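Issue: copy button drops trailing tokens. Both records pasted manually instead:
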Amino acid sequence: MSRLYAVASTSATGPGGAGGDTGPAAPTDPASDLASFFDDLVRCETRLYNAVGDKLRAEHGIVTSQYEGLRFVRDHPECRVADIATAFAIGIGAASKIIDRFEANGWAARLPNPADRRSSLISLTADGATLVAEAEQTFHGHLAELITTAIGAEQVSAVGAALATLRQALEDARVGVPVG
């Protein structure tokens, strides 16, 4: 358990709520708390991303990044490669390669952009739409299995709201946006 959460779980009745009175919790170090928060956030993301990817690969032959890209194209019909790059904080070249692979697999098609001949509009094919719809059931089911068995729906909502606020602040400040 990270220091941040170990301190938070100590109550007046002792660590974890058991035992005698141990007095007030030790003061926390804000820098250490932030480092623990970062470690926990990154390790949770990595483990969830990998576990969901394993499940999607086993059941649908795709990985998490492919599912996310397909879902984005489905939810943003006629998006551009630049829209994908912005949404995922990746370079234009990387986003274009993703769409190249989707096209090669028959999951997406590039259509002419009547407003800008230099770019294309991306749409899912029928096969791509079917794949993302089927994979979505697996994605949601596995996330529920992994997350809600560890923390309740109320905690999911609270953590989700905090992370959404942090994400919005980072996006507004253009933090972590690739150059080029």
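Record 2 (pasted manually too):
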Amino acid sequence: MIKHELLSYGYAIHVEKTETQERCPHCGFATSSVHDRRTRKVRDLAIFHQPVYLFVKVKRYRCWNCSQVFSASLESIPPNQHYTNRFCEYLYELCEGSTIQEVSRKHRIPYTTLERIYYSIASKKAKER
């Protein structure tokens, strides 16, 4: 964790992955050549009924072997997602005891986004059975 602050819309927690090397997803070569950095805003579970937003500094690497640029992998945040895995699971559980519309209003998440999250997790759970 780099820093945290309480803002008008909730908690903002700034974090960065500490590893200095990543494995290229294209060729498997390990590289430490940082191409650039991006900051991702990701929603996480609430603290004391306040929304939590993680501001994740993500390193993008250039592979010395295949020259591809790729982002560092994050175990709890899938690529191109704006919600942590545990927050998505939490939303899924809420929808099980309520409606998607009610949960989307309560947590201020677009209905179609919550619907996509719900059916994605439901599909994974159905395959596990």
